[in-house]
Design brief:
By secondary structure, the protein is of the alpha+beta class. The protein contains three helices and three strands.
Length: 67
């Protein structure tokens, strides 16, 4: 996972996390209000729910992360 520098200005700054798979599939997580702290949570905490999983099984991943 890679974190990107926020884009935008003022309170509407968007932080993004790029999620890469071992098969070359790339996805993004957008964070609109939690700042860098939320990016750390995404990169550190949610990472364990993504590793080894099918990136196209979105409903399962969502359920596991937000339960």
């Amino acid at each position: 996972m890679r974190a990107y520098v926020p884009c935008g200005w003022g309170p509407a700054r968007i932080h993004t996390i790029e999620i890469l798979t071992d098969e070359g599939v790339t996805g993004f997580a957008a964070n609109y209000g939690g700042g860098e702290a939320a990016c750390l949570v995404i990169a550190k905490h949610f990472k364990r729910f993504l590793i080894g999983e099918d990136p196209f099984n979105i409903e399962k991943l969502w359920d596991q992360m937000y339960r």
